Amino acid sequence: MFFHNKRLQYTARVAETNPGLANLLLEQFGGPQGELAEAVDEQAQLYRKLNGGGNDSHVTQLLYGAGAPLVNSGAVPWTAAYVDTIGEPTADLRSNIAAEARAKIIYERLINVTDDPGIRDALGFLMTREVSHQKSFEKALYSITPNFPPGKLPAVPEYADLYYAMSDGGGARRKSPWNDGHDLRLVEHPPVPADGGDGKATIALDGDESTTLEAMRHRLKSDPSSDPTTGADLGSGGPDKPRDFPT
Question: For Mn(2+), which residues are the binding ones (predicted)?
């Protein structure tokens, strides 16, 4: 299935051992922006294409031996929650582009915490590969026309180009391309709610559901005029007796 060459893609030269740095490097092995998460990201995105109309009965196991643990720099185990795939090519490609950008930043920070020239050199190579991967994913994304908005359904036309100014910090609002420009129109005092309704949620209930809800209302109703003695009152000596604290 795979051709495996045991030689490294880049020659790693470590001048001296550094357990602390080794622990930090685990971030790029078992962390959310690490190589494993990225590999599983892309594998998961391609799984349906590779598997075709097959079923999901296959079981894959990772057997841990004496290798590096699948944890991040804080010893948190790797989790499939790091896998970011939605099954829509343009959305997955944008996710991959962002993942490569985040991974590059992590490599930059790892380079900044070591003065070992060999490690800095190897990390610089890995950091640069993230840049190359990002270029590749961007080319793939923009080879799809159109690629925005993601998915098949169009945006609701009357809301698609509106930027609602929902906060008021005083002073004039600075207009810019991201809130009022060619693609967006700034709405200074938007109606709330935007659809012109009363903003209240309504749910249609059948007869049985209405009966159940009414029974629940009676069971859980409270008396706002009551002022019962509580455990807090009793523990402090009673509702009318403040507790004395030693000075």
Answer: 100, 133
- 218 marked as binding residue: no
Is residue 100 annotated as involved in ligand binding? yes
- Is 73 labelled as part of a ligand binding site? no
What are the tens digits of pLDDT across the range 37-72? 888 777 767 755 655 555 444 433 343 444 556 778
* Domain assignments of the chain as residue spans, ordered by start: 19-142, 154-204
Fold of 19-142: Ferritin (1.20.1260)
Stated pTM of the model = 0.62
* pLDDT tens digits along 136-166: 999 999 999 999 989 999 999 998 888 888 7
CB 100 within 8 A of CB 67: no
Task: Look at the block and give the residue holding tokens 């009965």.
Answer: 57
CB-CB contact of 31 with 72 (8 Å): yes
